[in-house]
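Q: My labmate handed me this sequence with no annotations at all. I'd like to see what the chain might look like in three dimensions before we decide whether it's worth expressing. Could you predict it?
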Amino acid sequence: MPLACLLLDLDGTLVDTKKLMLESYCQTLCQVGVRDYSREDLKSILSDSPPSVLKRFGVSSTDVYWKNYAANLRKHVRAFDPNLSSHLRAVRATRKQIGVVTSLRKPLAQALLSAIGIADLLDTLVAYGDTRVHKPAPNPILKALTNLSIAADQSIYIGDQASDVQAGKRAGVLTGVALWGTDRTAFSDIVPDFFFHHFSEVVALVRSH
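A: Here is what I predict for the chain of 209 residues:
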């Protein structure tokens, strides 16, 4: 069936938050009295979840981290593609619907979308807390499809983590990986339907189906 819907992950797919996370972790560790770490140590584990990263340094709560993340957001965030809004408008011009499915909490997700200027281009946003279980379970993607009244076989979900591909396959949608936010070698065990090197390739696929 022709594609009617483009679903996207946010952090690591649309938005480059590596600097944001690094600065927020450094501030957090300093504030809670952790000194025995290096920025290089943190860079190597940025793909891990905040609880996992902080646990390595003996920090059990993520509250301070998320406060720093929110405070630093506009200063350190950027879209991977400077033409992202134009690309999404091109998708919308073909009457396709666009949604974001993220594991971030909704206020932070909304702040990121606003910071990169695409909040008004989405038809739905599914964030942490909108479903009882989260990726790699299919529930968040299925929730987005329900919101849009779109069938799974008319949709594609694109992310940068193996959990994104797992969630997409379990939901029955086509899956894609944004290689500008990850490494292809991370997908040797679970292979998506598509690999994308540039967001223009996503637009071309969606517009042609």
